[in-house]
Backbone:
């Protein structure tokens, strides 16, 4: 086990199995030293969680937990892309966060902090990244949050 696996254990985090794609795409693409991870939703151990709209069905705090769950799925895909060795991660380059929210909701950044904070917890300074956090009128499976990511690997 590597340093990042040790860190996950310290944090009490067990990564899920990487989700298979549900349409005509691949879960990640490695191009040179970059890994582009397709949008990951709120898939938990018992199936899809956090279905509904932020600002109606979920609070900002609940939605941040949904974003954290997306982040766990991002890291699971990243681990697969790295052949199981998360110590190959040089840095998280960028996260893209989509929030299924009511029209007048404006705290999208606070929601996506749930994923951003996870990246820093797991990867320390290598987890600091550029990002966007935007509202969406709807997301696949009516999930509250979806996150995609770009990582640099060695």
Residues:
């Amino acid at each position: 086990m590597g340093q990042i696996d040790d860190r996950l254990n310290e944090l009490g985090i067990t990564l899920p199995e990487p989700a298979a794609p549900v349409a005509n795409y691949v879960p990640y693409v490695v191009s040179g030293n970059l890994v582009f991870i397709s949008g990951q939703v709120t898939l938990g151990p018992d199936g899809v969680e956090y279905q509904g709209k932020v600002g109606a069905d979920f609070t900002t705090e609940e939605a941040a937990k949904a974003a954290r769950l997306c982040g766990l799925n991002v890291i699971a895909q990243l681990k697969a892309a790295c052949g199981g060795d998360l110590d190959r991660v040089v840095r998280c380059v960028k996260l893209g966060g989509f929030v299924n929210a009511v029209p007048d909701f404006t705290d999208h950044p606070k929601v996506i902090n749930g994923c951003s904070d996870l990246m820093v917890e797991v990867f320390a300074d290598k987890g600091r990244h550029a990002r966007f956090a935007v509202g969406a009128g709807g997301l696949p499976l009516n999930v509250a949050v979806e996150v995609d990511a770009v990582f640099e690997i060695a």
Summary: The two ends are 17 Å apart (CA to CA). The chain has one domain: 3-17+28-153. The chain has a mean pLDDT of 97.
